[in-house]
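Chain A, query sequence.
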Amino acid sequence: MRHVIALDVGGTGMKAALVGMDGVLLHEARRATRRERGPDAVVETILGFAQELQAYGQRHFGTATEAAGVVVPGIVDSERGIATYAANLGWRDVPLRDLLSGRLGGIPVALGHDVRTGGLAEGRVGAGRGTGRFLYVSLGTGIAGAIGLDHGIEAGAHGCAGEIGHIVVRPGGPLCGCGGRGCLEALASAAAIGRAWALASGAPTADAAGCARAVEAGDETASRVWQAAVEALADGLLTALTVLDPHTLIIGGGLAEAGDTLFTPLRAAVAERATFQKVPAIVPAALGDAAGCLGAGLLARDLLATAAPSDSRRGVTERGRRPFPPA
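Chain A, predicted structure.
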């Protein structure tokens, strides 16, 4: 049975699958990233895990793996196949595509950014299916986004498109991890809400999930903290909507698990701010933490569809050719 490897690398764990050419998940597995052993050990863990998946596919399906897709956090140069920077993995300029292709016998490998690839999956087979143009925003420890165009994702000229978390919404505001001040991520991410709720509640271990529960219980202090984050988020989203004009705005990440506690005030806040902008449907992501792995599978399948025969052993893709149809 023809299949590809899909591998989603996170700061603490990896999710992987063998995916059929029709998009069906044939096998799933997980592995700890073990970043405490250092960046080189993380790379070796990824390579070894991919080899195990390749061997499993050969044993159980009787065919060789045809391609692999791997997604990682941080800054990714997908064209060159380099994980340029990932602070939580200790990486800088890791040629992950070539390392994986070499370890897997020269099969083509696609390298992608975790959030953009999760957005690709949401756009093709999740909450954005059939919408064509969408904006996917992941609200977690940080805030990142993916700009959906038809069946693909716009990465930008330097691989940084969609970084909505670094739109400045409160000039001169809190310091952000990027070095700027007043960024959306510093005000409306799960980490930012957790910090604000810990300060307001006097509980050092308080987090965003606890703030959401307190809001649902009617706590006025929690409601003020939550609403301040929602308003900052709405300001950032309106900027993005003004520039991109998507059909659908998909919200994922840990904060989306708050459900109506987030979506009801957020929809209202965005609508209140809109003037000429057409407010899109604002919907929760559908794929959960499987989005990155599913997206990695799509990257691998697309690679087989777009690679010229002479490129197939080098992991090279060619722009402009038609990808696999949506699963």
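The chain has two domains: 3-117+290-311, 130-284. DSSP finds nine helices and 13 strands in the chain.
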